[in-house]
Amino acid sequence: MPGALSSIRVLDLSRVLAGPWAGQVLADLGAEVIKVERPGVGDDTRHWGPPFLKDARGNDTSEAAYYLSANRNKQSITLDFTRPEGQQLIRDLVARSDVLLENFKVGGLAAYGLDCASLKAVNPRLIYCSITGFGQTGPYAGRAGYDFLIQGMGGLMSLTGRAEGEAGAGPLKVGVALTDILTGLYAAVAVLAALYHRERSGVGQYIDLALLDVQVACLGNQALNYLTTGRPPHQLGNAHPNIVPYQDFPAADGNFILTVGNDEQFRSFCEVAGHLEWSLDVRFATNQARVVHRDALIPLIRQVTVLRTAADWLAALEVAGVPCGPINDLAQVFADPQVVARGLQMELPHPLAGRVPQVASPIRLSATPVSYRQAPPLLGEHAEWVLSKVLGLDAERIAALRQSGVI
After folding, report:
1. Confidence (pTM)
2. Residue 372 in contact with residue 344, Cβ under 8 Å?
3. Is residue 25 predicted with pLDDT exceeding 90?
């Protein structure tokens, strides 16, 4: 079944995570994504290991797990666009493409005639998406931006970590490169919006996406907590700034998560805990009161939760309709019955390892479902196919480009 974007061709000049993540989202939706990489080196993340994908004998292949997370359904071509012949090949590909993704520094591609203005002259319908750390304007525009740096500058780390005075207190980054991934998702959304606009107008447009902009935009309720009060929120560990109780609690054999979303659920929790009087206490009867008196309520709950195992609590709270859950490591995540039922772990054939594990797309479309056509490509794996089928070059010309080192 054709994918939703099966008529769209994307030229992906991006590296590392934000741009490739956007490219993978578009590829899963059916777009033909051509990944352009440096000859002999490729995407930086190909070398960001260990761990590396293992072959049938258990030996490391050349493919790092990091690279494999963001590049399926793409075709790889190596191309040196610092040379005039390579620049012309990019222009030829642009003439036959709908979208270009890139994450070079501001102005980095202009020296090669591959900036938006130059390529729009080749293809006015082109949607040109630039991803940078700080955007195309402003005092930081020329700086390089990395996820960890942006998590700090964009306020996320000021909200993440144990509360002041607790053991291990201090700012922490999120355990995955969340800003990069969110930027990739925003990039994909922006591309889809631009494609829709092009259907009506016939012209493409430029997309300026910045990691810092995305991080600030994704502060969500915490941003409004500040903007409405003028008081910057701080670390609360696993607690919620606006809902109580909504955090982890100790059990007899570990920890579990309790997420009480309303007063009725709190009353149900109190019944399971054997302390209905908490729900009648004016300090705790409403969420507003519980937030104000958080420091009085949380120790009381902890004194009770440690008396039973996590499994006991989860079973009893589930029956009572109180939202709760375990704190799983990744082995437990991929063994979870719900994760298994939803098919979130899958495999694709791979030329070096036989099979490569992948995490499935969460997008479920009834008429145009996502498809998994091929594993993340080897470096330059599809050069001949792209040059011959997309650009129409003959074998002699391709051989000459390879001999000269352009591809």
Report:
1. 0.94
2. no
3. yes
